[in-house]
């Protein structure tokens, strides 16, 4: 595991954009899973800046969203697909045929899950899983207690996840009770994983990962031992004594 502590918001976004750029160079047509939420907004703005100057070439890759709310179409203000179109796919000029969208408004959610798994198989699995982190340790929508061997599936959202989303969306926002998500087996099988950790509320989840002990109640710990895991985190989250801390990998 490579740990990158970032002292500034701009440094965090640059480190994340560099990690994405590195994955894009690793193969001719890499396949990347993309996160949503507040954490990667600066990264996507940084990529858009780099695209404008010709310094980034995200158009060579294929993409999929990590997750989506069940019942929401891309036009809904809370939709993750809509978010990615606004913040990344549109500004970066990604061609429609390079994107597989996992839709929460699909009529047959089981078929939607299998279609995502088929796209993953067709494009050779993920080269990069770019992940945010939930306060309760979730990655994508894999909540505490999730099956570590799962492929794409529908989940009941944890109340802590819904509360965090409600805080962001504004009181009164109707946060769906279910999500559709790439599973932990798919994320763990990615050739590289970059985990972005930002915000004081993530301290306990990050600490669980850094303890280095696999715990199903902290889904992020399913990444322990991944051969190419990079964690980019705000320096403010560094646990006391972490200067001397050497992650196992
Ligand atoms: C949601 C998403 C996750 C995301 C997490 C963190 O629950 N399903 O994929 O990583 O929120 O969001 P934020 O970056 O806003 O803290």
List keywords for this structure.
249 residues; Rossmann fold; seven-stranded parallel sheet; 32% helix; binds 2-amino-2-deoxy-6-O-phosphono-alpha-D-glucopyranose
List the topology elements.
Elements: E1 2-6, H1 9-26, E2 31-34, H2 41-52, E3 62-65, E4 67-69, H3 80-89, E5 99-100, H4 109-122, E6 128-131, E7 153-156, H5 159-169, E8 178-181, H6 184-188, E9 192-197, H7 203-211, E10 229-234
Parallel strand pairs: 1-10, 2-3, 2-6, 3-5, 6-9, 9-10
Antiparallel strand pairs: 4-8, 7-8
The chain binds 2-amino-2-deoxy-6-O-phosphono-alpha-D-glucopyranose.
Largest sheet composition: 7 strands, parallel
Count the DSSP helices. Answer: 7
How does the helix and strand content classify structurally? alpha/beta
**Amino- and carboxy-terminal Cα gap:** 4 Å
Quote the CATH topology: Rossmann fold
The total tally of domains equals 1
Oligomeric assembly: single chain
Strand arrangement in the largest pleated sheet: 1-10-9-6-2-3-5
Shape assignment: globular
Low-confidence stretches: none
**CATH architectural grouping:** 3-Layer(aba) Sandwich
Bound molecules: 2-amino-2-deoxy-6-O-phosphono-alpha-D-glucopyranose
What gyration radius follows from the Cα positions, in whole Å? 17 Å
* Fraction of helical residues: 25-40%
String of helices and strands: EHEHEEHEHEEHEHEHE
Task: Determine the mean pLDDT.
Answer: 94
CATH class, named Alpha Beta
How many β strands by DSSP?
10
Beta-strand portion reads: 15-25%
């Amino acid at each position: 595991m490579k740990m990158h502590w970032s002292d500034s918001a701009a440094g965090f976004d640059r480190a994340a954009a560099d990690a994405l750029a590195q994955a894009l160079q690793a193969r001719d047509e890499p396949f990347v899973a993309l996160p949503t939420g507040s954490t990667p907004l600066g990264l996507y703005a940084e990529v858009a800046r780099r695209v404008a100057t010709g310094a980034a070439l995200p158009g060579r890759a294929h993409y999929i969203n990590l997750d989506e709310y069940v019942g929401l179409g891309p036009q809904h203000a809370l939709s993750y697909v809509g978010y990615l179109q606004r913040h990344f796919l549109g500004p970066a000029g990604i061609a429609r045929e390079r994107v597989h969208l996992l839709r929460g408004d699909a009529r047959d959610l089981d078929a939607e899950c299998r279609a995502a798994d088929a796209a993953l198989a067709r494009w050779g699995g993920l080269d990069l899983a770019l992940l945010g982190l939930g306060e309760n340790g979730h990655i994508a929508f894999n909540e505490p207690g999730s099956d570590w061997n799962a492929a794409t599936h529908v989940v009941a959202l944890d109340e802590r996840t819904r509360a965090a989303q409600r805080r962001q969306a504004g009181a009164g926002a109707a946060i769906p009770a279910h999500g559709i998500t790439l599973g932990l087996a798919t994320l763990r099988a990615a050739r590289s994983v970059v985990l972005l950790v930002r915000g004081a509320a993530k301290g306990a989840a990050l600490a669980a990962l850094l303890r280095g002990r696999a715990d199903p109640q902290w889904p992020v710990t399913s990444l322990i031992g991944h051969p190419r895991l990079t964690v980019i985190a705000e320096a403010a989250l560094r646990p006391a004594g972490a200067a001397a801390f050497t992650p196992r990998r």
